[in-house]
Amino acid sequence: QVQLVESGGGLVQAGGSLRLSCAASGRTFSRYAMGWFRQAPGKERELVAAITWNGGNTYYADSVKGRFTISRDNAKNTVYLQMNSLKPEDTAVYYCAADGSSWSFSININSYEYDYWGQGTQVTVSS
Questions:
Q1: Which of 22, 24, 55, 93 could form a disulfide with 120 if both were Cys (CB 3.0 to 4.6 A apart)?
Q2: Judging by beta carbons within 10 Å of its beta carbon (0-12, 13-18, 19+), is residue 88 exposed, middle or buried?
Q3: pLDDT for 62-105, tens place per residue?
Q4: What is d(CA 107, CA 103) in angstroms, rounded to the nearest whole number?
Q5: With helix as H, strand as E and coil as C, how does 75-88 read?
Q6: CB neighbours (10 Å) of residue 27?
Q7: 25 three-state secondary structure
Q8: DSSP letters along 54-112, please?
């Protein structure tokens, strides 16, 4: 079992930056690929960024490429999402999630492939 707790959300003006953190409990965090999803009102949950267990492979949605960076620190059981040049369309609840497939070098992009979820943190970007 992995418990995930997100932090770092808030209100920011367009063009600003935020860094989200996701702290994981349990000794198995380092085995799992991690993803950041977001869900805006009336929209489906979408994968924003993901990273393999060793950080060797990453994925970014086209809408955030060049602006967002995902990273992880397995010693601290934490995954991060650095968000720069934020836009109003980035407004959403952001969730971190763990893919329960241990030691995988591939990245799954569908939410149903992730087994553990945090409670979410709100990011609001004003224009």
A1: 93
A2: exposed
A3: 999 999 999 999 999 999 999 999 999 999 999 999 998 878 88
A4: 11
A5: CCCEEEEEECCCCH
A6: 9
A7: coil
A8: TSS-EEE-TTTTTTEEEEEETTTTEEEEEE-S--GGG-EEEEEEEEEEET-SS---SGG
